[in-house]
Amino acid sequence: MPLSYPSTIEAGVEQEIVIRKSRFIARIEPVTSVERADGVIAAARKRNWDARHHCTAMVIGLTADQARSSDDGEPSGTAGIPMLEVLRRRELTDLVAVVTRYFGGVKLGAGGLVRAYSTAVSQALDAASLVHRVALTQVRIEVPHADAGRFENLLRSWAGVAGATLGAPSYTAHATLEVWAPASALAGLHDAIAAASAGEITPQLGAERIVDVPASDS
Q1: How many domains does the chain have?
Q2: Phi, psi of 142 (to 5 degrees)
Q3: How far apart are CA 97 and CA 80, in angstroms?
Q4: pLDDT of residue 19
Q5: Which helix (H) or strand (E) holds 139?
Q6: Tens of pLDDT along 71-83?
Q7: Could you tell me which residues are beta bridge partners of residue 214?
Q8: pLDDT-based confidence at 127, cuts 50/70/90?
Q9: Is the torsion defined by CA of 207, 31, 184, 169 positive or negative?
Q10: Residue 207 lies in a domain
């Protein structure tokens, strides 16, 4: 299935690592706005109110066009930016990462902090379920009621291998069947319908929408 947009995660995840007695608790949540991301950060601060640092990174938007990060008192460039780079490297969006650090009394140095915060986010993402985002085009066909079942079965079988999804049928003077398909599969769908109808039925293209597809289904 072609991926046209950055992916996101299905649900929040949390992982903890300990490096030279410092605890790094990484929490990553899917969000749809900066305001929601700020809410996740505020909740982490409240939950772990006694921690020294709550470093953050977020990427927001369908095309990942908004990004922010904060070192929250760690040396400049050792926490937020490395966390953000992990999100960028994995081509993710609409999520916020918060890494809470409980200082263990041993300084890690700039390089050690970069590795610690990057690793905390990476390990949390390793435990997350990815959701891919794809652009699908609406395709409708009108068929006689007597042929509706046959063409619905055709569309269902085709959709299962083409990364498409069926829409809801409607029944008026004719049966109108709907499928949402990736652009790369439209030519194949046209050919399948032409073959099944001896060229008498022409698919009608409609709107485009972005849908989330769990990685296990792609």
Answers
A1: 2
A2: -105, 130
A3: 9
A4: 94
A5: strand 130-143
A6: 999 999 999 999 9
A7: 131
A8: very high
A9: negative
A10: yes
